[in-house]
Sequence to fold (674 residues):
Amino acid sequence: MRVFHFTEQPYPDAWDPSLDSYRIVLPNGVCDPKVAADLYHRYLDEWMLADDLGLDIMVNEHHSTATCMTASCHVTLSILSRITKKARLLALGVPLANRADPQRIAEELSMIDVISRGRFEMGFVKGVPYEPPVSNQNPVNMMERLWESHDFILKAMTTHTGPFNFEGKYFHYRNVNIWPRPWQQPHPPVWITASSLSSAKEVARRGHVLATFLQGYKTRQLFDLYREHYRAAHGVEPGPDRFGYLALCAVGNTRKEAFARAAEVGRYVTTTSIVHEPFRNPPGYMPVSDYTRVLRNTGKMVPRMVPTYDGRMIDVNRPLSVQENIDLGLMFCGTPDEVYQQIVSFESYAGGIGNMLLMMQGGALSHEETCDSLTLFGKEVLPRLKEYAKMRGQTLAPQALGAAE
Amino acid sequence: MQTAEATSHDFITVGGFRQEIQTVGAGAPVLFLHPGRGMRGAGPFLDALAAGARVVAPSHPGFDRSELPDWMNTVEDLAYHYLDVIDALDLRDVTLVGSSFGGWIAASLAIKASPRIARLVLIDAVGVKVGGRDDRDIVDIWAQKKTALDALTFHDPSRGGVDYASMSDEELTSIARNVESEALFGWSPYMHDPKLLRRLHRISAPTLVLWGASDGVVKPDYGRAYANAIPGARFALIEAAGHLPHIEQPDATARAVLDFISATPVRGA
Fold:
């Protein structure tokens, strides 16, 4: 099992509770570049520590927001590809439907793969609703645009015989011949995020890694559907390496310390959707059938009931305690023993997860606290997870059984 | 030439896909091109217009119950499609009446100089860029809260009130489709074609530009600039109306259209 350390590189000084938007309309005048520089440096240092501890690294990107200062996966990974040594470097992801120039994406990601000597993992995402009003790319048909961009990027990375032509519905090039070509052959591993059954099917058909964010005990349904469609398309069982799950995580020397850290990391969840109301659902972002339901419920507080590990239903459209987040599978939190048990239990519930994506820094969790939480994880949880995965892999992975026959 | 095949009194098939259409009244043909909200609320205006004209009011591809071919995503696509619809329905000496987004389609149609187009009426039309690159000619409707948008759209903002809970699934689906389709065609460049202003000089049909005096989405000065770019166009305000005069002042708006038709007899008619 791989474990990835993730932070959105937040700028929590700007999180003024009296504001109705931390994104898009919050003037960047409240961003002090000196503070931002210090934050960038410490977040990079934390990723370097993760590398030293044997963890892997995940970055993402958002735009015009104090919740996430990573304005580009490419920029962050450009730095990390040179200053880290062993970690896999996951972008999850590059928001293809918001990017007008996939040729430049293919070139820059190939550079990152080469500079890192083949440590790059290439994640593509639809992105949150708040992005099209900033990118000005159309919120209608985003998935269709994402897949065309995806097809183009893979073709650009795998064509080595000179320029090719591409004239699609959305993207047009006449002389595609990127330099460098990627280190990994035929191309870096592709990840796609999905939270809907229809998206999970498409990811399975293409054989890419399926990642889900904070889906808790709805994850198994998505993963099982993926397994079914993967088997149908490829004739073999997908290994645990085909699955990624993102949760929040805080480890402490005591349960109390861990819970205090988790409460701070958890501010990610309570701040991320504080957005000027019209940008929460741009036209065409959600399918007509879903939007119809939203219209019908205009002005109503509709509870969103989500199952816990033991089958209780909790309304997640209200503030949640750390314990509730743990029970919902959204947070792994506690002493190293407790965190190990929670992850193993969730991994087992989901039927095998090869990649745990853990937000271990969120909100204003300090550098010292983050480093301590990371170190506890790296030294006391990670080795046991590796052992666990090895044991589980030997007994359960069908590929291994097939090889033994 | 495309031919129309009526699948019911409510739908036509032109170009291989079904399009919802309403036809009322008798007399000189009027093709009404609805705004981004679709045909919702247009009934009283159509009825008032029908007192002196035969009104043909299709829902654009992707709007209301009209299908959307997967290759259509520009207003140019819609304008060429409506040239086919005009041929298919054999509309002669037709008066185009376009409101807001529908006005953009109407102007894009009129520059193509079909001999079947006799007159053009633009009502609070979008579609052109008249200001500089830093000017926002048209309010970003997708950046407004509903209350703010209602205040900009209507002379009487209470006209914006909608009771979604009481609507049928079909009505809500139409609203959801209209919101999505308007974005498909109008997201970027936002609600205009950068080339359209330079092509308006080609319009030879007599043109009337009507504007809600209280329009806060697209100010009357934008309408005046639009009219100035069309040879011989007349500009007139509709009082006590915002961006959608056909909804707020259906009778006054219909009367202005019918008076214009009477005042501009077709050559040889």
